[in-house]
Amino acid sequence: MSAANMFNRRFGFLRTCLGPVAAVAIAGLAQSQNLELSQSYADRTLSDGQHEDYIARVGVDAVSPAWPVHDDDDVVIRSALVKPAETITVVRRPPVSQIGKSEFPGPSETQSGDLDRDYNLTREIQQWFQMASEGNLRNICLPANRNYHLRPKQPGGRHLLIEGLRDCVVDLNGSTLFFSSVGPGLVLKDCQRVLIRGGEIQGASTLATIAQVVKNHNGSGRSLKVLPEFVNALQADFPDGKVPLWTIAAIQKQTGSSPGWRLSQPVYQDWFVNRRTRQWVFNAETQSFVPTKFHSVDASLLLDDYVMLVHHNNEGHAIMLDNRDGQGLEDITFEDMTFRNIPGMMIAGELNRGLHLRRVQTQLRSNGSPGLLSVASDTVHINSVRGDIIIEDCSFNASFDDKINIKSNYWRIAEVAGNEVTVHPAGRPVSVKSWGKKNDRILVVGDDLEEISQSRLVVDSERLKGKQHLLRLDKFDASLKAGQLIFNADTAGGRVVIQNNRFLSTRAQGVLVQTSHVLIRGNIFDEIAGPAISVRFGLNDWYESIAPSNIVIEQNRFGAVGFDRDKANAAIEIKQKGSGGSPVSIISNVRIRDNELLSPPVDGQ
Fold first, then answer.
1. How many whole angstroms separate alpha carbon 571 and alpha carbon 568?
2. DSSP letters along 451-490, please?
3. d(C-alpha 147, C-alpha 181), whole Å
4. H helices present in 310-379, as ranges
5. pLDDT tens track for 286-324
6. At CA 214, angle to CA 209 and CA 217, rounded to 5?
7. Which of 29, 48, 213, 410 sits 20 to 30 Å CA-CA off 426?
8. Are 552 and 519 in contact (CB under 8 A)?
């Protein structure tokens, strides 16, 4: 294979999976010394009208539901996207300015290890936030540069609930909140126009360690021997010796100007373990992980290679957005914040509308054993939203899943009784706290995406036990039956601006685009094992994404991306699959222009 063909195969700039009516197929970049883009990439537009009627029915409007705006609103209006008359209008509503501040009156600092004191302080802070809500305080300020070790009442419980705030600025004032156990961190509920700024949040437990592949004690199969510098951290965090292991990932040691560990190229691979029949158990005596029985992962591990062992998945999100019963969680801003060592996602959940991140960063832990991950799962994962999301001027360090994932989900009908319909998740069992509000547009489709029924909610949805929701529709339709796909078109996202950010190191995608009216501009991507940007409609991929359209990807820079052997070898991927993996043509109006592939990789520059 020629050098040019090898380059094209490894770093093809755009991969398309557009189905039988694809309008474009793009070859790899022409090889040049500085990897400048050819003119053909200056403005590449993909447009497909096969499902224009479908997109018109389910699409989210390009204009924010917050329109018309108020005097204090910050309106982000960008130039026309793909359709000549289509512009994206994103509204950010900050808290109404108030003079003065209310300082937290409790203890100024605690030392971790005093469990009673940690819990008592947590209870005092919780009471303070409750009084702030009841007193309609507009400014809450912690003492400057203190450390607060928060401990929930029950292991795995939430550390702090922030509920019922309106037009409020919460200033951490340089202080750090340490979560003393693995569980939800700050849970936001029924808050509107709230800004949290100026501090640090750090999670508990060791997220990942490094091991070397060695032979089993009996000479057959493999074991994973944890390197000595990580053993003490494991023993401290898991004194009972029951060390969890979720994922094994190939890594390599880097020397030179930037020493440390990095995802292994060009043969990067990761394996999900301890799922179903796959089990690896920690042997405290040998300080190794040993599989309970032989499987393909065992055979893939080469002797003396190094691997990253990821010990947590989604047990402890730092910020939980709880839109329970649609009470009004909206316009939430995080500014000048640092997140470290989060055993879950940095921000996860749902909200009515309005999420803004500015100058937010994730970093490796600054104490204890060497940090390998800043976040153990997605960095930002929004399950249901009506739009107005802005992520700008942020820097997201090593994580183990998607950096940004904003989407909605398909559900399935469980039961029909007149105009009352009970629904449950269609793919993975991920529910939401609020399914829909009065007058939301509801569509029922077959697995072939052909429309079966349209209706609206006559009242807000009702959350039932488990993960089910009860919907009351505005009309009875005899064609509805159990098993059909159903979704809320008005919570399918839309109006997203992602600009001037740094996305560094993940085994998954950088930005997963599964919504409409999206601008991704001026970002840097490096060490992304999957595609840096994936525009995706996957009816069989967790039943996410309704109808992505009207998307601009411009002026981004790509370092080492797309090197996972099981993912697209591309900086930008467009992928759309229907039920059972069959090709469809749903994604439309995607413009890709003025992006740059870097060599050598960004490497911190």
1. 8
2. EEEEEEBSS--EE-STT-EEEEBSS--TT--TT-EEEEGG
3. 16
4. none
5. 999 988 876 667 778 888 889 999 999 999 999 999 998
6. 115
7. 48
8. yes
Q: How far is CA 375 from CA 352, 363, 555, in A?
A: 25, 8, 27
As a whole number of angstroms, the distance between CA 546 and CA 516 comes to 9
Q: Return the closest-CA partner of residue 388 out of 66, 96, 87, 58.
A: 66
Contact 572, 596 (CB under 8 A): no
The string over 314-335, giving b where at least 16 C-beta atoms fall within 10 Å of a residue's C-beta and e elsewhere, is: ebbbbbbbbbbebbbbbbbbbb
Task: Give the model's pLDDT for residue 545.
Answer: 86
Question: Any bridge partners for residue 14, and if so which?
Answer: 572
Three-state DSSP state, 601: coil
Q: What is the dihedral of CA 452, 458, 459, 465, to 10 degrees?
A: -30
* Residue 560 in tokens: 């080492």
Higher pLDDT, 221 or 379: 379
The alpha helices in 59-199, defined as continuous H runs, are 115-134
Q: Which of 332, 352, 86 is nearest to 188 (CA)?
A: 332
Model confidence over 333-392: pLDDT tens digits? 999 999 999 999 999 999 999 999 999 999 998 766 677 899 999 999 999 999 999 999
Q: Looking up tokens 């500085």, which residue turns up?
A: 34
> Cα–Cα distances in Å, from 108 out to 103, 105, 130, 147?
11, 8, 19, 8
DSSP state of 212: E
**Torsion of the alpha carbons at 126, 132, 138 and 144, rounded to the nearest 10:** -40
What is the C-alpha separation between 60 and 514, in angstroms, rounded?
12
Tell me how far apart the alpha carbons of residues 278 and 286 are, in angstroms, rounded to a whole number: 21
Q: How many residues are listed for the chain in this entry?
A: 605
Percentage, residues of the chain above pLDDT 70: 85
Instruction: For residue 568, give the 3-state DSSP assignment.
Output: coil
What pTM was estimated for this model as a whole?
A: 0.90
Evaluate whether 160 touches 125 at the Cβ level (below 8 Å): yes
Closest CA to 513 of 578, 588, 443, 582: 588
Asked whether 486 and 423 are in contact (CB, 8 A), the reply is yes
What token pair was written down for 104?
């937290």
Cα–Cα dist 377/400, whole Å: 5
Helix (H) / strand (E) containing 433 = none
What does residue 503 show for φ and ψ, rounded to 5 degrees? Answer: -115, 110
Q: What is the pLDDT of residues 475-522, one digit of tens each?
A: 989 999 999 999 999 998 889 999 999 999 999 999 999 999 999 999
Q: How high is the pLDDT of residue 114?
A: 65
Contact assessment for residue 387 and residue 353, using Cβ atoms and an 8 Å cutoff: yes
How sure is the predictor about 12, in pLDDT bands with cuts at 50, 70 and 90?
Answer: very low
Amino acid occupying residue 366: S
409, two tokens:
């989900």
CB atoms within 10 A of CB 143: 17
